[in-house]
Amino acid sequence: MPTDQKLQKTPLYQKHLSLKAKMVEFGGWEMPVQYEGILAEYQQTRTRASIFDTSHMGEFVLQGDCLKNGLNRLVTMGIVDMPLKTCRYGFLLNEQGGVIDDLIVFREEKEKWFMVVNASTIDKDFQHMKKHLTPQADFINLSSSIGKIDLQGPLAREILSSLVADIKKLDYYTFDFFHLLGHNVLISRTGYTGELGYEIYYPAQEIGNVWDVLLKKNEVKPAGLGARDVLRLEVGYSLYGHELSDVITPLDAGLDRFIDFNKDFIGRDVLLKQKEEGLIKKSIGFVSDSRRAPRAGQILFDASGQKIGSVTSGSFSPHLEKGIGLGLVLSVMKEKGAPVFFGTENSKESAKISGKIFYKNGTLKN
Amino acid sequence: MDIQNDFFYTKEHEWVSIEDNIATVGISDYAQEALGDITFVELPHVEDEIEQFGQIASVESVKAASDIFSPISGKIIEVNTDLESQPGLINKSPYHKGWIAKIEVSDSEELSNLMNAEEYENFLESEG
Prior knowledge:
The complex is a heterodimer of chains A (366) and B (128).
Chain A: H1 13-18, E1 22-26, E2 29-34, H2 38-47, E3 49-53, E4 58-63, H3 71-74, E5 87-93, E6 99-109, E7 112-117, H4 122-132, E8 138-141, E9 146-152, H5 156-161, E10 175-180, E11 183-188, E12 197-203, H6 207-215, E13 220-222, H7 225-234, H8 268-277, E14 281-288, E15 299-301, E16 307-317, E17 322-330, E18 339-344, E19 347-354
Chain B: E1 8-9, E2 14-19, E3 22-27, H1 29-35, E4 38-42, E5 49-50, E6 55-61, E7 65-69, E8 74-79, H2 82-85, H3 89-92, E9 101-105, H4 117-127
Antiparallel strand pairs in B: 1-2, 2-3, 3-9, 4-6, 5-8, 6-7, 8-9
Protein backbone atom coordinates (compact mmCIF):
# COMPACT_ATOMS: atom_id res chain seq x y z
CA MET A 1 0.00 0.00 0.00
CA PRO A 2 1.39 3.44 -0.88
CA THR A 3 2.47 5.42 2.14
CA ASP A 4 3.59 8.56 0.32
CA GLN A 5 2.62 11.44 2.61
CA LYS A 6 2.20 13.77 -0.33
CA LEU A 7 -0.71 11.80 -1.76
CA GLN A 8 -4.08 13.40 -1.25
CA LYS A 9 -6.97 11.48 0.28
CA THR A 10 -10.66 11.82 -0.48
CA PRO A 11 -13.23 12.18 2.33
CA LEU A 12 -14.15 8.50 1.69
CA TYR A 13 -10.59 7.23 2.23
CA GLN A 14 -11.41 5.42 5.51
CA LYS A 15 -14.44 3.78 3.89
CA HIS A 16 -12.15 2.26 1.25
CA LEU A 17 -9.73 0.98 3.87
CA SER A 18 -12.52 -0.63 5.88
CA LEU A 19 -13.81 -2.29 2.70
CA LYS A 20 -10.26 -3.64 2.22
CA ALA A 21 -9.81 -1.94 -1.11
CA LYS A 22 -6.51 -2.19 -2.91
CA MET A 23 -5.25 1.40 -2.93
CA VAL A 24 -3.10 2.97 -5.66
CA GLU A 25 -1.71 6.35 -6.59
CA PHE A 26 -3.76 8.10 -9.27
CA GLY A 27 -3.01 11.66 -10.36
CA GLY A 28 -1.59 12.58 -6.94
CA TRP A 29 -4.40 10.88 -5.01
CA GLU A 30 -4.53 7.64 -3.07
CA MET A 31 -7.52 5.90 -4.62
CA PRO A 32 -9.19 2.46 -4.55
CA VAL A 33 -8.31 0.49 -7.70
CA GLN A 34 -10.46 -2.49 -6.70
CA TYR A 35 -12.47 -4.00 -3.85
CA GLU A 36 -13.79 -7.46 -4.72
CA GLY A 37 -12.00 -7.61 -8.09
CA ILE A 38 -12.08 -5.65 -11.32
CA LEU A 39 -14.10 -8.18 -13.33
CA ALA A 40 -16.75 -8.62 -10.62
CA GLU A 41 -17.05 -4.83 -10.24
CA TYR A 42 -17.31 -4.49 -14.01
CA GLN A 43 -20.15 -7.04 -14.19
CA GLN A 44 -21.88 -5.41 -11.23
CA THR A 45 -21.87 -2.06 -13.03
CA ARG A 46 -23.02 -3.43 -16.39
CA THR A 47 -25.85 -5.48 -14.87
CA ARG A 48 -26.83 -3.88 -11.55
CA ALA A 49 -25.27 -0.75 -10.03
CA SER A 50 -22.01 0.40 -8.45
CA ILE A 51 -20.81 3.40 -6.52
CA PHE A 52 -17.49 5.03 -7.35
CA ASP A 53 -15.65 7.56 -5.21
CA THR A 54 -14.87 10.41 -7.60
CA SER A 55 -14.31 13.02 -4.89
CA HIS A 56 -10.83 13.64 -6.26
CA MET A 57 -12.27 15.45 -9.27
CA GLY A 58 -12.31 19.24 -9.40
CA GLU A 59 -15.25 21.64 -9.30
CA PHE A 60 -15.22 25.35 -10.15
CA VAL A 61 -18.00 27.92 -10.03
CA LEU A 62 -18.12 31.04 -12.18
CA GLN A 63 -20.79 33.72 -12.06
CA GLY A 64 -21.48 36.19 -14.81
CA ASP A 65 -22.20 36.62 -18.50
CA CYS A 66 -20.06 34.08 -20.36
CA LEU A 67 -19.56 36.44 -23.31
CA LYS A 68 -18.28 39.22 -21.09
CA ASN A 69 -16.19 37.34 -18.52
CA GLY A 70 -14.22 35.24 -21.01
CA LEU A 71 -15.71 31.78 -20.34
CA ASN A 72 -17.13 31.40 -23.84
CA ARG A 73 -13.62 31.83 -25.30
CA LEU A 74 -12.07 29.36 -22.84
CA VAL A 75 -14.13 26.31 -23.75
CA THR A 76 -14.62 24.64 -27.13
CA MET A 77 -18.29 23.75 -26.83
CA GLY A 78 -21.08 26.23 -27.48
CA ILE A 79 -22.45 27.46 -24.15
CA VAL A 80 -24.34 30.65 -25.01
CA ASP A 81 -27.36 28.65 -26.15
CA MET A 82 -27.24 26.08 -23.34
CA PRO A 83 -30.62 25.59 -21.66
CA LEU A 84 -30.63 25.95 -17.88
CA LYS A 85 -29.87 22.76 -15.90
CA THR A 86 -28.09 21.05 -18.76
CA CYS A 87 -24.50 19.83 -19.06
CA ARG A 88 -22.08 19.97 -21.98
CA TYR A 89 -18.77 18.20 -22.54
CA GLY A 90 -15.80 19.94 -24.17
CA PHE A 91 -12.22 21.08 -23.78
CA LEU A 92 -9.90 23.78 -22.51
CA LEU A 93 -7.22 24.27 -25.18
CA ASN A 94 -3.84 25.93 -25.22
CA GLU A 95 -2.81 28.34 -27.99
CA GLN A 96 -1.45 25.40 -29.99
CA GLY A 97 -4.81 23.62 -29.91
CA GLY A 98 -3.53 21.01 -27.43
CA VAL A 99 -5.89 19.89 -24.69
CA ILE A 100 -5.25 21.40 -21.24
CA ASP A 101 -8.17 19.35 -19.95
CA ASP A 102 -11.55 17.92 -20.84
CA LEU A 103 -14.42 19.17 -18.73
CA ILE A 104 -18.18 19.34 -18.30
CA VAL A 105 -19.87 22.73 -18.02
CA PHE A 106 -23.19 22.90 -16.15
CA ARG A 107 -25.51 25.90 -16.61
CA GLU A 108 -26.96 26.40 -13.17
CA GLU A 109 -28.51 29.80 -13.80
CA LYS A 110 -28.38 32.11 -16.80
CA GLU A 111 -25.18 33.56 -15.39
CA LYS A 112 -23.94 30.83 -13.08
CA TRP A 113 -21.68 28.07 -14.34
CA PHE A 114 -20.52 24.95 -12.54
CA MET A 115 -17.57 23.12 -14.06
CA VAL A 116 -16.13 19.68 -13.41
CA VAL A 117 -12.50 18.98 -14.29
CA ASN A 118 -9.99 16.17 -13.83
CA ALA A 119 -8.26 15.70 -10.48
CA SER A 120 -4.65 15.89 -11.63
CA THR A 121 -5.28 19.09 -13.61
CA ILE A 122 -7.23 21.13 -11.04
CA ASP A 123 -4.48 23.68 -10.36
CA LYS A 124 -3.38 23.91 -13.99
CA ASP A 125 -6.98 24.43 -15.16
CA PHE A 126 -7.77 26.98 -12.48
CA GLN A 127 -4.67 29.04 -13.25
CA HIS A 128 -5.33 28.89 -17.00
CA MET A 129 -8.95 29.96 -16.59
CA LYS A 130 -8.10 32.67 -14.10
CA LYS A 131 -5.58 34.07 -16.56
CA HIS A 132 -8.11 34.29 -19.38
CA LEU A 133 -11.15 35.43 -17.38
CA THR A 134 -11.65 39.12 -16.72
CA PRO A 135 -9.93 40.20 -13.47
CA GLN A 136 -13.26 41.00 -11.82
CA ALA A 137 -14.83 37.64 -12.72
CA ASP A 138 -16.35 35.83 -9.74
CA PHE A 139 -14.51 32.51 -10.10
CA ILE A 140 -13.85 30.02 -7.30
CA ASN A 141 -12.35 26.56 -6.88
CA LEU A 142 -14.65 24.44 -4.69
CA SER A 143 -12.79 21.17 -5.26
CA SER A 144 -11.73 20.53 -1.67
CA SER A 145 -15.16 21.19 -0.17
CA ILE A 146 -17.13 19.01 -2.58
CA GLY A 147 -17.19 15.23 -2.38
CA LYS A 148 -18.58 13.20 -5.25
CA ILE A 149 -20.07 9.74 -5.70
CA ASP A 150 -21.00 8.26 -9.07
CA LEU A 151 -23.87 5.77 -8.97
CA GLN A 152 -23.74 3.86 -12.25
CA GLY A 153 -25.57 0.89 -13.69
CA PRO A 154 -28.94 -0.11 -15.15
CA LEU A 155 -30.57 -0.13 -11.68
CA ALA A 156 -29.23 3.33 -10.73
CA ARG A 157 -32.54 5.12 -11.26
CA GLU A 158 -34.55 2.68 -9.17
CA ILE A 159 -32.01 2.80 -6.38
CA LEU A 160 -31.63 6.56 -6.25
CA SER A 161 -35.38 7.17 -6.52
CA SER A 162 -35.82 5.42 -3.18
CA LEU A 163 -33.86 8.31 -1.64
CA VAL A 164 -34.75 11.11 -4.07
CA ALA A 165 -38.31 10.57 -5.35
CA ASP A 166 -38.17 13.10 -8.19
CA ILE A 167 -34.86 11.86 -9.63
CA LYS A 168 -36.81 10.07 -12.36
CA LYS A 169 -37.42 13.35 -14.20
CA LEU A 170 -33.72 13.82 -14.89
CA ASP A 171 -32.80 13.24 -18.56
CA TYR A 172 -29.37 12.31 -19.90
CA TYR A 173 -26.85 15.17 -19.58
CA THR A 174 -29.10 17.29 -17.39
CA PHE A 175 -28.93 18.08 -13.67
CA ASP A 176 -30.84 19.68 -10.86
CA PHE A 177 -30.77 20.23 -7.11
CA PHE A 178 -32.37 17.55 -4.97
CA HIS A 179 -32.91 16.96 -1.29
CA LEU A 180 -30.69 14.02 -0.26
CA LEU A 181 -30.11 13.01 3.37
CA GLY A 182 -30.46 16.49 4.77
CA HIS A 183 -28.74 18.52 2.07
CA ASN A 184 -29.96 20.16 -1.11
CA VAL A 185 -27.36 19.01 -3.60
CA LEU A 186 -26.50 18.94 -7.27
CA ILE A 187 -27.10 15.60 -9.00
CA SER A 188 -26.41 15.15 -12.70
CA ARG A 189 -27.40 12.35 -15.05
CA THR A 190 -23.85 11.85 -16.30
CA GLY A 191 -21.09 9.31 -15.91
CA TYR A 192 -18.08 7.53 -17.30
CA THR A 193 -19.27 3.95 -17.75
CA GLY A 194 -21.75 3.90 -20.66
CA GLU A 195 -24.53 2.93 -18.25
CA LEU A 196 -27.49 4.78 -16.81
CA GLY A 197 -26.15 6.73 -13.89
CA TYR A 198 -25.84 9.78 -11.72
CA GLU A 199 -23.08 11.90 -10.25
CA ILE A 200 -23.83 13.22 -6.79
CA TYR A 201 -22.01 16.35 -5.58
CA TYR A 202 -22.15 16.55 -1.80
CA PRO A 203 -20.51 18.47 1.06
CA ALA A 204 -17.17 16.68 1.44
CA GLN A 205 -17.38 16.31 5.22
CA GLU A 206 -20.72 14.52 5.11
CA ILE A 207 -20.47 12.45 1.97
CA GLY A 208 -19.67 9.36 4.07
CA ASN A 209 -23.40 9.19 4.93
CA VAL A 210 -24.36 9.02 1.26
CA TRP A 211 -21.78 6.29 0.67
CA ASP A 212 -23.07 4.24 3.64
CA VAL A 213 -26.74 4.61 2.74
CA LEU A 214 -26.15 3.62 -0.90
CA LEU A 215 -23.98 0.66 0.10
CA LYS A 216 -26.78 -0.66 2.30
CA LYS A 217 -28.96 -1.09 -0.79
CA ASN A 218 -28.94 -4.72 -1.85
CA GLU A 219 -28.17 -4.02 -5.48
CA VAL A 220 -25.23 -1.66 -4.85
CA LYS A 221 -21.56 -2.53 -4.49
CA PRO A 222 -18.46 -0.35 -4.53
CA ALA A 223 -16.31 -0.25 -7.66
CA GLY A 224 -12.80 1.10 -8.07
CA LEU A 225 -10.73 2.86 -10.68
CA GLY A 226 -9.78 -0.45 -12.31
CA ALA A 227 -13.36 -1.28 -13.26
CA ARG A 228 -14.01 2.36 -14.12
CA ASP A 229 -11.17 2.30 -16.67
CA VAL A 230 -12.43 -0.90 -18.33
CA LEU A 231 -16.01 0.42 -18.42
CA ARG A 232 -15.01 3.73 -20.01
CA LEU A 233 -12.65 2.11 -22.50
CA GLU A 234 -15.33 -0.33 -23.72
CA VAL A 235 -17.52 2.65 -24.63
CA GLY A 236 -14.64 4.60 -26.18
CA TYR A 237 -14.48 7.50 -23.71
CA SER A 238 -11.22 9.45 -23.64
CA LEU A 239 -9.02 9.61 -20.56
CA TYR A 240 -6.97 12.75 -20.05
CA GLY A 241 -3.24 11.97 -20.20
CA HIS A 242 -3.96 9.10 -22.60
CA GLU A 243 -6.24 9.98 -25.54
CA LEU A 244 -5.95 13.68 -24.73
CA SER A 245 -2.95 15.80 -23.73
CA ASP A 246 -1.25 19.17 -24.13
CA VAL A 247 0.13 17.98 -27.47
CA ILE A 248 -2.97 16.20 -28.81
CA THR A 249 -5.74 18.32 -30.30
CA PRO A 250 -9.41 17.30 -30.08
CA LEU A 251 -9.32 16.78 -33.87
CA ASP A 252 -6.41 14.32 -33.54
CA ALA A 253 -8.52 12.52 -30.95
CA GLY A 254 -11.54 12.45 -33.30
CA LEU A 255 -13.67 14.57 -30.97
CA ASP A 256 -14.79 17.24 -33.45
CA ARG A 257 -18.38 17.04 -32.22
CA PHE A 258 -17.47 18.81 -28.98
CA ILE A 259 -16.18 21.88 -30.81
CA ASP A 260 -18.28 24.84 -31.91
CA PHE A 261 -16.34 26.46 -34.75
CA ASN A 262 -19.02 29.15 -35.07
CA LYS A 263 -17.55 30.99 -32.09
CA ASP A 264 -14.11 32.22 -31.10
CA PHE A 265 -12.13 30.08 -28.63
CA ILE A 266 -8.49 29.67 -27.63
CA GLY A 267 -6.79 27.30 -30.07
CA ARG A 268 -9.41 27.76 -32.81
CA ASP A 269 -6.94 29.06 -35.42
CA VAL A 270 -4.73 26.00 -35.06
CA LEU A 271 -7.68 23.62 -35.30
CA LEU A 272 -9.02 25.37 -38.41
CA LYS A 273 -5.58 25.11 -40.01
CA GLN A 274 -5.48 21.43 -39.07
CA LYS A 275 -8.85 20.89 -40.72
CA GLU A 276 -7.74 22.73 -43.84
CA GLU A 277 -4.42 20.93 -44.20
CA GLY A 278 -5.77 17.53 -43.20
CA LEU A 279 -4.90 15.55 -40.11
CA ILE A 280 -1.54 13.85 -39.79
CA LYS A 281 -2.70 11.66 -36.93
CA LYS A 282 -5.93 9.81 -36.36
CA SER A 283 -7.48 8.16 -33.35
CA ILE A 284 -8.54 4.53 -33.82
CA GLY A 285 -10.01 1.66 -31.87
CA PHE A 286 -8.72 -1.87 -32.34
CA VAL A 287 -9.55 -5.34 -31.10
CA SER A 288 -6.88 -7.93 -30.33
CA ASP A 289 -7.19 -11.27 -32.11
CA SER A 290 -6.69 -12.93 -28.71
CA ARG A 291 -7.36 -12.34 -25.03
CA ARG A 292 -3.98 -10.59 -24.85
CA ALA A 293 -4.49 -6.90 -24.10
CA PRO A 294 -2.66 -3.93 -25.53
CA ARG A 295 -1.13 -1.55 -22.97
CA ALA A 296 -0.76 2.24 -23.08
CA GLY A 297 2.60 3.23 -24.53
CA GLN A 298 3.06 0.16 -26.72
CA ILE A 299 3.87 0.68 -30.39
CA LEU A 300 1.35 0.08 -33.18
CA PHE A 301 2.60 -1.42 -36.45
CA ASP A 302 0.94 -2.00 -39.82
CA ALA A 303 0.91 -5.35 -41.63
CA SER A 304 4.31 -4.66 -43.19
CA GLY A 305 5.88 -4.02 -39.77
CA GLN A 306 6.11 -0.25 -40.19
CA LYS A 307 5.58 1.76 -37.02
CA ILE A 308 2.33 3.72 -37.45
CA GLY A 309 1.66 5.07 -33.97
CA SER A 310 1.12 4.10 -30.37
CA VAL A 311 -1.44 2.69 -27.96
CA THR A 312 -3.07 5.39 -25.82
CA SER A 313 -5.20 3.01 -23.69
CA GLY A 314 -5.59 -0.74 -23.58
CA SER A 315 -7.29 -3.41 -21.54
CA PHE A 316 -8.95 -6.78 -21.59
CA SER A 317 -12.60 -6.37 -22.59
CA PRO A 318 -14.87 -8.61 -20.52
CA HIS A 319 -17.65 -8.00 -23.08
CA LEU A 320 -15.64 -9.14 -26.12
CA GLU A 321 -13.37 -11.49 -24.15
CA LYS A 322 -10.49 -10.03 -26.15
CA GLY A 323 -7.96 -7.26 -25.73
CA ILE A 324 -9.14 -3.81 -26.84
CA GLY A 325 -7.30 -0.57 -27.34
CA LEU A 326 -7.39 3.01 -28.47
CA GLY A 327 -4.45 4.38 -30.40
CA LEU A 328 -3.13 7.42 -32.18
CA VAL A 329 -1.81 6.52 -35.63
CA LEU A 330 -0.86 8.10 -38.94
CA SER A 331 -4.10 9.18 -40.55
CA VAL A 332 -3.66 6.93 -43.57
CA MET A 333 -4.45 4.00 -41.28
CA LYS A 334 -8.13 4.09 -40.56
CA GLU A 335 -9.81 1.37 -42.51
CA LYS A 336 -12.00 -0.77 -40.25
CA GLY A 337 -11.04 -4.41 -40.33
CA ALA A 338 -7.47 -3.66 -41.41
CA PRO A 339 -4.81 -5.64 -39.54
CA VAL A 340 -2.71 -3.78 -36.99
CA PHE A 341 -0.12 -5.09 -34.54
CA PHE A 342 0.59 -3.92 -31.01
CA GLY A 343 3.58 -4.51 -28.76
CA THR A 344 7.29 -3.91 -29.23
CA GLU A 345 9.74 -4.44 -32.12
CA ASN A 346 10.47 -7.89 -30.67
CA SER A 347 7.00 -8.98 -29.71
CA LYS A 348 3.98 -8.09 -31.81
CA GLU A 349 0.39 -9.21 -31.29
CA SER A 350 -2.20 -9.11 -34.04
CA ALA A 351 -5.40 -7.05 -33.92
CA LYS A 352 -7.97 -5.48 -36.25
CA ILE A 353 -8.90 -1.84 -36.54
CA SER A 354 -12.46 -1.30 -35.30
CA GLY A 355 -14.73 1.52 -34.22
CA LYS A 356 -14.03 3.12 -30.87
CA ILE A 357 -17.19 1.81 -29.22
CA PHE A 358 -16.59 -1.79 -28.21
CA TYR A 359 -19.71 -2.18 -26.07
CA LYS A 360 -22.93 -0.98 -27.66
CA ASN A 361 -25.59 -2.28 -25.24
CA GLY A 362 -25.08 0.35 -22.54
CA THR A 363 -28.13 1.66 -20.65
CA LEU A 364 -26.79 5.24 -20.67
CA LYS A 365 -29.85 6.80 -22.32
CA ASN A 366 -32.53 4.41 -21.01
CA MET B 1 -3.13 -16.44 2.39
CA ASP B 2 -2.97 -20.08 1.37
CA ILE B 3 0.45 -21.80 1.28
CA GLN B 4 0.73 -25.50 0.38
CA ASN B 5 2.87 -27.38 2.88
CA ASP B 6 4.78 -29.78 0.67
CA PHE B 7 5.42 -27.34 -2.20
CA PHE B 8 8.56 -25.27 -2.89
CA TYR B 9 8.52 -21.57 -3.74
CA THR B 10 10.55 -18.88 -5.53
CA LYS B 11 11.02 -15.27 -4.47
CA GLU B 12 8.95 -14.37 -7.55
CA HIS B 13 6.02 -16.34 -6.04
CA GLU B 14 6.02 -19.39 -8.31
CA TRP B 15 5.49 -22.83 -6.76
CA VAL B 16 6.60 -26.32 -7.69
CA SER B 17 5.50 -29.72 -6.42
CA ILE B 18 7.39 -32.85 -7.37
CA GLU B 19 6.12 -36.37 -7.78
CA ASP B 20 8.11 -39.19 -9.45
CA ASN B 21 10.57 -36.69 -10.97
CA ILE B 22 7.70 -34.72 -12.59
CA ALA B 23 7.41 -31.13 -11.42
CA THR B 24 4.10 -29.27 -11.56
CA VAL B 25 4.54 -25.50 -11.69
CA GLY B 26 2.21 -22.56 -10.99
CA ILE B 27 1.96 -19.25 -9.16
CA SER B 28 1.15 -18.84 -5.48
CA ASP B 29 -2.04 -17.61 -3.87
CA TYR B 30 -0.15 -14.45 -2.92
CA ALA B 31 0.80 -13.90 -6.58
CA GLN B 32 -2.71 -14.38 -7.95
CA GLU B 33 -4.08 -12.06 -5.28
CA ALA B 34 -1.50 -9.40 -6.13
CA LEU B 35 -2.13 -9.68 -9.88
CA GLY B 36 -5.91 -9.57 -9.61
CA ASP B 37 -8.25 -11.08 -12.20
CA ILE B 38 -6.12 -13.00 -14.69
CA THR B 39 -7.40 -12.61 -18.26
CA PHE B 40 -4.73 -14.27 -20.42
CA VAL B 41 -1.99 -16.87 -20.00
CA GLU B 42 0.75 -17.47 -22.54
CA LEU B 43 1.73 -21.10 -22.02
CA PRO B 44 5.07 -22.66 -22.95
CA HIS B 45 5.26 -25.37 -25.64
CA VAL B 46 5.52 -29.04 -24.85
CA GLU B 47 9.13 -30.22 -25.47
CA ASP B 48 10.55 -26.77 -24.62
CA GLU B 49 13.67 -26.98 -22.45
CA ILE B 50 13.40 -24.59 -19.51
CA GLU B 51 16.16 -23.31 -17.21
CA GLN B 52 15.63 -22.77 -13.51
CA PHE B 53 14.49 -19.13 -13.05
CA GLY B 54 14.14 -18.75 -16.82
CA GLN B 55 10.84 -17.49 -18.25
CA ILE B 56 8.24 -20.20 -18.62
CA ALA B 57 4.99 -18.28 -19.19
CA SER B 58 3.43 -14.87 -19.04
CA VAL B 59 0.13 -13.90 -17.47
CA GLU B 60 -1.98 -10.83 -17.94
CA SER B 61 -4.44 -9.35 -15.52
CA VAL B 62 -6.87 -6.57 -16.36
CA LYS B 63 -4.27 -4.02 -15.30
CA ALA B 64 -0.88 -5.50 -16.20
CA ALA B 65 1.26 -8.22 -17.76
CA SER B 66 3.79 -10.28 -15.79
CA ASP B 67 6.43 -12.85 -16.68
CA ILE B 68 6.39 -16.18 -14.85
CA PHE B 69 9.70 -17.92 -14.14
CA SER B 70 10.30 -21.63 -13.77
CA PRO B 71 11.26 -22.85 -10.29
CA ILE B 72 13.18 -25.72 -11.84
CA SER B 73 15.03 -26.83 -15.01
CA GLY B 74 13.80 -29.52 -17.37
CA LYS B 75 11.66 -30.39 -20.35
CA ILE B 76 8.01 -29.32 -20.59
CA ILE B 77 5.89 -32.46 -20.91
CA GLU B 78 2.41 -31.02 -20.46
CA VAL B 79 0.73 -27.61 -20.26
CA ASN B 80 -2.62 -26.67 -18.73
CA THR B 81 -4.63 -25.85 -21.86
CA ASP B 82 -7.73 -25.15 -19.71
CA LEU B 83 -6.07 -21.82 -18.94
CA GLU B 84 -6.43 -20.74 -22.58
CA SER B 85 -10.18 -20.34 -22.22
CA GLN B 86 -10.36 -20.05 -18.40
CA PRO B 87 -7.34 -18.07 -17.21
CA GLY B 88 -9.32 -17.22 -14.05
CA LEU B 89 -8.64 -20.79 -12.82
CA ILE B 90 -5.35 -19.37 -11.55
CA ASN B 91 -7.31 -16.98 -9.30
CA LYS B 92 -9.81 -19.60 -8.17
CA SER B 93 -7.40 -22.47 -7.63
CA PRO B 94 -3.76 -21.37 -7.84
CA TYR B 95 -2.33 -24.65 -6.47
CA HIS B 96 -4.60 -27.15 -8.21
CA LYS B 97 -6.75 -26.33 -11.28
CA GLY B 98 -4.59 -23.29 -12.01
CA TRP B 99 -1.34 -25.18 -12.55
CA ILE B 100 0.62 -23.94 -15.58
CA ALA B 101 3.00 -26.69 -16.76
CA LYS B 102 4.51 -30.06 -15.90
CA ILE B 103 8.26 -30.46 -16.26
CA GLU B 104 10.45 -33.55 -16.43
CA VAL B 105 13.04 -32.58 -13.82
CA SER B 106 16.64 -32.64 -14.99
CA ASP B 107 18.29 -31.87 -11.63
CA SER B 108 16.36 -32.31 -8.39
CA GLU B 109 19.28 -30.75 -6.48
CA GLU B 110 17.92 -27.41 -7.70
CA LEU B 111 15.21 -27.61 -5.03
CA SER B 112 17.83 -26.39 -2.58
CA ASN B 113 17.64 -23.01 -4.36
CA LEU B 114 13.96 -22.71 -3.41
CA MET B 115 12.05 -22.00 -0.21
CA ASN B 116 9.93 -24.56 1.57
CA ALA B 117 6.47 -23.59 2.86
CA GLU B 118 7.73 -22.29 6.19
CA GLU B 119 10.50 -20.27 4.58
CA TYR B 120 8.06 -18.87 2.03
CA GLU B 121 5.65 -17.84 4.77
CA ASN B 122 8.48 -16.01 6.56
CA PHE B 123 9.50 -14.44 3.24
CA LEU B 124 5.96 -13.13 2.67
CA GLU B 125 5.92 -11.68 6.19
CA SER B 126 9.28 -9.98 5.67
CA GLU B 127 8.02 -8.52 2.38
CA GLY B 128 5.22 -6.94 4.39
